């Protein structure tokens, strides 16, 4: 037995138990190695006229024996001789594929110069030789087989040689290399599966369903056909002497079937793919039963070349806003799945986007499960984000009905994106937001709101609450509308948080009409308010005393028209924020708004209060103040402290 030419026990233990986190990927690694072997022979055939084969002659075969508990991956690629086996499988982390790729790169400049002076056919052939897309680069993928196998046997024959060789190892101490027999060139890798334990079962890897599932999941787009003998059923021919009561009989048979689709749909130009094909790919790949709302295809070449296929779903997944939902795009390298959900490719506010990114330029870590350097990924992610934003803007401008439906499904996430980034994403997302206009009675963008503003309007006004119907009747909303200014009616729980994080949009301040400080009063309004405050100073003091620390002050409202009073707030916590935070699990520690009771000094109720104060009826002043405050709370959808006392005061008025 030959010893591994490294500290085998330590390194193999690291390979099998540490580098890879998912044992299923052993098949991906072996198929990728087989694909590389096919590539090497194909590229060699382009420069060696003695090799008479075409790309269509190269295949990868996967088979299993359930009784013997073996899995075999075979190729008819370049194969290896005795020295190749010793170098590639005897030295862990030696990559013949990487050497091949490096050698091809070194020859690229010279080949390019020759191609420049060549005829068209020669130039095309030279380009094919230099466009090397070899998958394996670390020389460790083969050893992932020992995650599922107690022994691995490799039978290989190099193209042009007569002698075949057999490499065998249990992945512990070393390996043996002996002469063997094999028809034709290529390599067979035979895995003898580990015995089942109480904790783990390896039987699924020796089954037709299990192997087909792994091939489709990880290697569906490998460029060579991956074939398996698959069991099928068919109806037997009806016997000639069968009577009228004959019942059809069925039989099972085996047929060689190509499992992978080979050509990724994202590598094809958009002009070559119908929308129906995109829709079917989306629904099958991402397990949705509805067509996507938007399909985006990108092919980029440059310092980093990549292909991107994105889908904006037609409906929100049921778990989109749950803690279990995972965002991310599928990441491929040279058509081989690396990550099922690469979170770094999309920001949180675009977590609903599904799709695929494929690039052969990404620097992967040794296990090919994660990236080694993030700069390349960040560059792609930046382009992906810009593309998504651009497509959403196109939908907003050209397909408004579809966009409003999209926003109904995913708008909450965009708003939360602004809030969670403390407003820094408002430049990216602000133009995409939609809100219901009380004046126009339809959904509008912030830019459309600004376009409809009167010349003297300085701010964007909004109201936050549970429903547009109720908000439209709120005293502060009707007060703003009566001045000819529009109000955006925000009915999602994240709206007020989003608006406060934005602070302003296109140099227009965003103001909650329940904040009190709206700047709507004219000079005459200010004068009237000051005079009323001064005239009824004792009344306001008595009202504040009656309410105690429930409010920070009682003031004259410059906005109210019909309503006798309204609750507004001062400081960073609005009334709507307080209401939302009160419903959270740890509500006791949540901050409260600083409430202000604003009264309409022109209303008959205020006149009754003033009369009670002048008559010295302090109890009536106190009761009326409490009633005004509590009715204002009810209009805001806020709870009152003592419903029983409120009911008693109402009954007292009815006597």
TrEMBL record:
The keyword Signal is annotated on this UniProt entry: no
GO CC, alphabetical: cytoplasm
Domain of life: Bacteria
Binding annotation for ATP: 29, 33, 75, 80, 88, 137-142, 187, 368
Its biological purpose: Molecular chaperone. Has ATPase activity.
HAMAP family: HSP90
Family indicated by similarity: Belongs to the heat shock protein 90 family.
Summary of subunit composition and partner proteins: Homodimer.
Protein name (Swiss-Prot/TrEMBL): Chaperone protein HtpG
Organism: Denitrobacterium detoxificans
Phylogenetic placement of the source organism: Bacteria, Bacillati, Actinomycetota, Coriobacteriia, Eggerthellales
């Amino acid at each position: 037995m030959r010893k591994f030419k490294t500290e085998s026990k330590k390194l193999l233990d690291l390979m099998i138990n540490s580098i890879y986190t998912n044992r299923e990927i052993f098949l991906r690694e072996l198929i990728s190695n087989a694909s590389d072997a096919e590539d090497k022979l194909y590229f060699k055939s382009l420069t060696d006229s003695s090799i008479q084969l075409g790309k269509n002659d190269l295949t990868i075969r996967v088979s299993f024996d359930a009784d013997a508990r073996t899995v075999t991956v075979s190729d008819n690629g370049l194969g290896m001789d005795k020295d190749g086996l010793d170098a590639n499988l005897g030295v862990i982390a030696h990559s013949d594929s990487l050497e091949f790729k490096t050698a091809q790169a070194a020859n690229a400049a010279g080949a390019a110069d020759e191609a420049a002076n060549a005829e068209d056919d020669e130039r095309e052939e030279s380009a094919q030789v230099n466009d090397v897309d070899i998958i394996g680069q670390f020389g460790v993928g083969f050893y992932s087989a020992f995650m599922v196998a107690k022994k691995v046997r490799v039978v290989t024959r190099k193209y042009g040689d007569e002698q075949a060789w057999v490499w065998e190892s249990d992945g512990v101490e070393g390996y043996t290399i002996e002469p063997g027999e094999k028809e034709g060139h290529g390599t067979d890798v035979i895995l003898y599966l580990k015995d089942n334990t109480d904790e783990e079962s390896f039987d699924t890897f020796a089954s037709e369903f299990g192997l087909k599932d792994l091939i489709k999941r990880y290697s569906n787009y490998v460029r060579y056909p991956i074939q398996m003998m698959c069991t099928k059923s068919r109806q037997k021919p009806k016997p000639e002497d069968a009577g009228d009561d004959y019942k059809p009989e069925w039989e099972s048979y085996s047929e060689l079937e190509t499992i992978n689709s080979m050509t990724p749909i994202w590598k094809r130009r958009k002009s070559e793919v119908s929308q129906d094909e995109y829709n079917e790919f989306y629904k099958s790949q991402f397990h949705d039963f509805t067509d996507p709302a938007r399909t985006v295809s990108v092919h980029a070449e440059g310092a980093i070349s990549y292909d991107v296929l994105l889908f904006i779903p037609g409906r929100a997944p049921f778990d989109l806003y749950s803690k279990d939902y995972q965002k991310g795009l599928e990441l491929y390298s040279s058509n081989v799945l690396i990550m099922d959900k690469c979170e770094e490719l999309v920001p949180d506010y675009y977590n609903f986007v599904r799709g695929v990114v494929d690039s052969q330029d990404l620097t992967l870590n040794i296990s090919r499960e994660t990236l080694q350097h993030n700069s390349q990924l960040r560059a792609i992610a930046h382009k992906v984000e810009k593309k998504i934003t651009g497509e959403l803007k196109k939908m907003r401008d050209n397909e408004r009905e579809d966009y409003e439906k999209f926003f109904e499904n995913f708008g909450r996430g965009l708003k939360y994106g602004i809030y969670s980034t403390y407003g820094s994403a408002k430049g990216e997302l602000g133009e995409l937001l939609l809100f219901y206009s009380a004046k126009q009675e339809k959904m509008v963008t912030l830019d459309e709101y600004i376009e409809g503003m009167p010349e003297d309007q300085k701010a964007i006004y909004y109201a936050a609450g549970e429903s547009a119907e109720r908000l439209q009747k709120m005293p502060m909303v009707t007060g703003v509308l009566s001045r000819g200014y529009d109000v955006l009616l925000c009915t999602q729980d994240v709206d007020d948080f989003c608006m406060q994080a934005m602070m302003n949009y296109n140099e227009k301040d965003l103001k909650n009409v329940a904040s009190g400080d709206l700047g709507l009063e004219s000079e005459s309004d200010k004068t009237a308010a000051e005079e009323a405050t001064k005239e009824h100073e004792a009344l306001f003091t008595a009202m504040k005393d009656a309410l105690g620390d429930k409010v920070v002050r009682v003031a004259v409202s410059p906005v109210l028209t019909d309503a006798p009073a309204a609750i507004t707030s001062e400081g960073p916590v609005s009334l709507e924020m307080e209401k939302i935070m009160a419903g959270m699990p740890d509500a006791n520690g949540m901050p409260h708004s600083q409430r202000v009771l604003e009264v309409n000094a022109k209303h008959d109720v205020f006149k009754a209060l003033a009369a009670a104060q002048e008559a010295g009826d302090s109890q009536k002043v106190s009761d009326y103040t409490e009633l005004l405050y509590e009715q204002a709370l009810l209009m805001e959808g806020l709870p009152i402290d003592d419903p029983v006392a409120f009911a008693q005061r109402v009954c007292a008025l009815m006597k």
